[in-house]
Amino acid sequence: MTKNLFIIKADGRKVPFNEKKIISTCRRAGASKDATKRIVKKIRGQIFPGIKTKDLFKMVLRALGEEKGGTVLKQKYQLKDAIMRLGPGGFIFEIYVGQILKHSNFKVKNIGAKIRGKCALHEIDVIALSGNKKFMIECKYHSRHGLYTGLKESMYTHARFLDLTPRFHKEVLTCNTKVSFQAKKYAKCVGQQILSWRYPPGKSLEKIIEKNRLYPITILNLNSKEIAIFSKNHIMLAKDLLNYTEFELAKITGIKTQRIKNFQKLIRQLFDST
């Protein structure tokens, strides 16, 4: 029975186990209804009181791997982890956000530009244009689970926006984690847009990525050296690897052609399953 079972989240909180979340993430990863039912049944038989979310995650990952097309299912299921590997600093995440914006009908003008405001000099993570509107994009990146982007970050972003008015028409706080209730409330009050994990409903970061197949290159389980090489060349989307032959990419990156071919094969499998 899992009705009164509690699990331990990454931030130490004790919360009720909710198998609906497993069903939702498995389905989003591409698992069929029957496969999802089998996975949930396995989890019910293995889960125990006080299990940590990271161990539950591994449990689901193993169950996904046992299904048909398990390799691809596992990769998609690890989307949040893949984004968290866009580190250890936030600059690579900023480049990735820029790529997402480009594929969402924005024109990215600058990344990391320094602009003088009324009272201070600001380094703006991403500057983007949409129609005649100029957007100031503040990117908040976290490399660990259990962290929220909160009121402090939302207020900080708005303060910068006010100091830079009228240079920008809109402000956007973008992050790879969930945002707190206080941050959402404040952002709504001041007219700040938020793009984060699970928010806004239906148009959240992971929804945009999944809908448009904008998977980060880290979904391919690259090592840190390979991540650095691709980001240096501003190749941040997995699908962009298909714009080159394995020989062209090997020349650009110095990565062996066979490994490039393996990456490209997995990307095609990811797309074929979407």
Task: List its salient traits.
single chain; 274 residues; alpha/beta; Trna Endonuclease, Chain: A, domain 1; DNA polymerase, domain 1; 3 domains; five-stranded mixed sheet; two-stranded antiparallel ribbon; 12 helices; globular
**Low-pLDDT ranges:** none
CATH fold title of the largest domain: Trna Endonuclease, Chain: A, domain 1
CATH class of the largest domain: Alpha Beta
Oligomer: single chain
**Taking Cα atoms only, what radius of gyration do you get, to the nearest Å?**
20 Å
Mean pLDDT: 92
Notes on the structure:
It is a single chain. This protein has helices at 19-28, 33-46, 53-65, 70-77, 79-84, 91-102, 151-164, 181-190, 205-212, 224-232, 246-253, 257-272, and strands at 6-8, 14-16, 107-116, 121-130, 133-140, 170-175, 193-195. The protein has 274 residues and is of the alpha/beta class. The protein has three domains: 6-77; 84-212, Trna Endonuclease, Chain: A, domain 1 (3-Layer(aba) Sandwich); 214-272, DNA polymerase, domain 1 (Orthogonal Bundle). The strands form two sheets. The protein has a five-stranded mixed beta sheet, with helices on both faces. Strand 6 (170-175), helix 8 (181-190) and strand 7 form a beta-alpha-beta unit. The two termini are 33 Å apart.
Brief summary of the model shown:
This protein has helices at 19-28, 33-46, 53-65, 70-77, 79-84, 91-102, 151-164, 181-190, 205-212, 224-232, 246-253, 257-272, and strands at 6-8, 14-16, 107-116, 121-130, 133-140, 170-175, 193-195. The chain is of the alpha/beta class.
